[in-house]
C-alpha cells in the first residue's frame, strides 16, 4: 500500500512540475500579440508589467500546488489522527494505571511468593549438588 501512495505522489508532483514548466515556457516565448481568454474576456499581454504579473501568478500557483496543498492535507488529516491517537493512548495509560493501583496488593503478594519459592528451589538445588 505504501508503494501505491509513493507512485501517486510522484505522478502528481511530476504533473504539477510539467504544468509549471509549460506555463513558464509560454511566458518566455516572444509573442507580440498573445492574449489570454478568461471567462470569455480577452486579456492581451503586451507590456512588461503584464508579463511580470503573469510570471508572478505562475510562481504563486506553483508554490501553492507544491507546498501549501500538501501542508493543508497533512495538517487537516494527519494532525487530527495524531490527536485522537494521543487521547486513546492517554486513556489506555490511565486504565492501566488504575488497574495497577487496584491490583497492587495482589501484585505484592505474587512478588513475595515468587521470592520465597525461588529461594527454596535454589536451596534444594544446592543441597542436592552438595550431597553428590
Automatic annotation (TrEMBL):
Chain segments annotated as transmembrane? 52-74, 81-114
Q: Which UniProt keywords apply?
A: Membrane, Transmembrane, Transmembrane helix
This chain's protein is named: DUF4064 domain-containing protein
Amino acid at each position: 500500500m505504501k508503494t501505491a501512495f509513493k507512485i501517486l505522489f510522484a505522478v502528481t508532483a511530476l504533473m504539477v512540475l510539467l504544468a509549471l514548466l509549460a506555463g513558464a515556457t509560454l511566458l518566455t516565448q516572444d509573442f507580440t500579440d498573445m492574449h489570454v481568454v478568461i471567462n470569455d474576456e480577452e486579456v492581451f499581454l503586451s507590456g512588461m508589467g503584464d508579463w511580470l504579473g503573469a510570471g508572478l501568478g505562475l510562481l504563486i500557483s506553483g508554490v501553492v500546488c507544491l507546498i501549501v496543498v500538501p501542508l493543508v492535507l497533512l495538517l487537516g488529516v494527519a494532525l487530527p489522527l495524531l490527536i485522537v491517537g494521543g487521547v486513546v493512548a492517554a486513556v489506555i495509560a490511565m486504565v492501566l494505571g488504575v488497574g495497577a493501583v487496584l491490583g497492587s496488593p495482589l501484585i505484592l503478594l505474587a512478588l513475595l511468593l515468587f521470592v520465597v519459592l525461588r529461594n527454596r528451589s535454589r536451596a534444594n538445588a544446592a543441597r542436592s549438588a552438595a550431597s553428590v
